[in-house]
Amino acid sequence: MFSHISYEPFGECAIRLVFDHTINEKTLYNIQACQKIIEQYPFKGLIEIVPSYTSLCIYYDVVKVASLLPPSQQSVEDFIISYVENLLLQQYAEDVIIKRTIEIPVFYGDHYGPDLAYVAQYHRLTKEEIIHRHTKARYIVHMLGFAPGFAFLGGLDSSIATPRKEVPRLSIDAGAVGIAGYQTGVYPLSTPGGWQIIGRTPKNLFLPNQTPPSLLQAGDIVHFVDVSSQKWEDFL
Amino acid sequence: MTVTVLKPGLFSTIQDAGRFGYRQYGVIVSGATDQLSYSIGQALLQQQNTAAIEVTMIGPTLQFQVDTVIAITGANCSPLIDGKPCAMWRPVVIKQGSILSCQVISNGMRSYIAFKGGIQVPVVLHSRSTYIRAKIGGYNGRALQKGDILPIHPGHLQRTNYFVQPYNFSQSIKVRVMKSTEWAFFTKNSLQHFLQASFTLTREMDRMGYRLQSACPLATTKPLSLLSDAVTFGTIQVPPNGQPIILMADHQTTGGYAKIAQVICADLPLLAQLQPNALIHFEVVTIAEAQQIYIKQQHELSLLQWS
To answer: Is the N or C terminus of chain A more exposed, i.e. has fewer CB atoms within 10 Å?
Structure first.
């Protein structure tokens, strides 16, 4: 299952493992399995691994890796490549993938989702229909980045894909649920941004006092649940 | 046992070696921008990776309610203790009641004030570095303000009669880079320009990144549609306007612009000390050369640590 990895040095203290060139779930699970195996059997000097849509970036302490290099190895990159290749040959990845399903409660529309009416108008649909299509879909977390706890989600119903706002808002509340083109996601922190905001979750996405510090992790299945008829306070 | 901030300076934050292990969750590394000056400060106090103050352009004024030892490194901030000049790049004994006042930085951008034992702010995700956007780390997740009270243990050193040679920070520098992922997608002219022209550092320069400007925008041979992918300190990205951005200590964990080159780790401290309008020339080295240069730099640092 790891037969198509290409290895690209990324500066002098990182190496990228490239699995594919398109976004798909099979690649996501291969990347996850590979990351788990390396984290389970780390080489000395490994700092951390960052997954993205189609690759893994392995950061390492070059001073440490170089000092431990066996005499037969020519370079730090060659050592890491052969270490990873050997590891992947020996390991069965099927059993390391755990798919979690996370439900995210969302208050849609009104002051929580100031752009819901615009998104409905843009698609000539009712607000209820936008909410229905947004909650019906099954989303998958491909990677985290941009902000702490921010998940890049795949799976938005393309019939509600909406271009970004022409003029970005100076401040978007933490928890805002938005659509930008074919992406949907939740802002973990209050930031400026150009997404169409259709709702807001009372859940914290960034959890600095927990391990891991993020509600969502790569590989998670996400469902948005419409809780607009309930009280915001009940979720705090 | 505390140090009180009488004046915060322009932008003073608490930083250490950085917050590692959480980039996969979108948590940035942060940490001292000039890791070399920061680490020398640590070595002068015979310690590693403690919380220090990163000073930007205008230094703070601090009052000590504790006997301790400090070391100030990085750009020259003309520090005074109770009105008398205080040496940089060496351990300095400070008596309870003394006032340290740092001035405007003259020859660079950032100075580091290290305290024996470090500033005892809480550790968040294995680091004391300030992450302002997420409001975590450092002093309440923000830059220092007037009246802040920093917890510091009493500190003592057996010997304080040593120093290191002050670094001279130039505002016209050669920065060594390695070719990065999208290097080969740039036009011949763009690559030639990248290696021959001088790039000016604009005023849009902070701990997140530096925007550069040059006469000829850099272009790829065809439009690239790139997926968000890992980026790191020193990654040189080229957005559609063709003017490069160098990612600095507070860079985001992932990015989607074309990566033309990567600054070698050993030269990042030179960038950290640039002021607006500084001039940068790029020179390409191989990854093996970059590794050797960095290993040598770290070796020299470790000699200082144990001397």
So the answer is: C
From the list A102, A125, A219, the residue with the least C-alpha distance to A179 is A125
**Chain B closest-CA separation from residue A86 CA (Å):** 23
Q: Chain A residues with CB inside 8 Å of B21's CB? A: 47-48
* CA distance to A21, A44, B132, B195, B235, per residue, from B232 (Å): 21, 21, 18, 21, 6
DSSP letter assigned to residue B127:
B
Task: Report pLDDT digits (tens) over B99-111.
Answer: 999 999 999 999 9
Q: What tokens does B235 get?
A: 């990654």
Closest CA to B237 of B248, B229, B227, B245: B245
Q: What is the mean pLDDT of chain A?
A: 93
Helix axes A76-90, A25-40, angle to 10 degrees: 100
- The half-sphere exposure of B6 on its side-chain side, counting CA atoms within 13 A, is 11
**B202 CB burial (10 A radius; 0-12, 13-18, 19+):** middle
| Residues of chain B contacting A, Cβ within 8 Å | 20-28, 124-125, 131, 133-134, 136, 178, 180-181, 227-230, 232, 234-235, 252-254, 262, 264-265, 287-288, 290-291, 294-295, 298-299
How many Cβ atoms from other residues are within 10 Å of residue A177's Cβ? 24
Among the listed residues B41, B51, B54, the one whose alpha carbon sits nearest the alpha carbon of residue B207: B54
ipTM of the complex: 0.95
What are residue A162's phi and psi, to 5 degrees?
A: -140, 135
How far does the CA of residue A107 sit from the closest CA of chain B (Å)?
Answer: 23
**Better pLDDT: B306 or B297:** B297
Mutual orientation of helices B287-306 and B35-44 as an angle, nearest 10°?
20
Confidence of residue A73 (pLDDT cuts 50, 70, 90): confident
Q: Count of CB atoms within 10 A of residue A173's CB?
A: 14
Query: Quick check: A63 contacting B, CB < 8 Å?
Result: yes
Tell me the pLDDT tens digit for each residue of B21-33: 999 999 999 999 9
What's the pTM value of the predicted model, to 2 decimals?
Answer: 0.94
Tokens representing residue A235 in the block? 């979720």
Is the pLDDT confidence value at B176 over 90? Answer: yes
Instruction: Name every chain A residue with its beta carbon within 8 A of the beta carbon of B251.
Output: none
- Output the average pLDDT for chain B: 96
Q: Which of residues 173-192 of A touch B (CB under 8 A)?
A: 188-189, 191
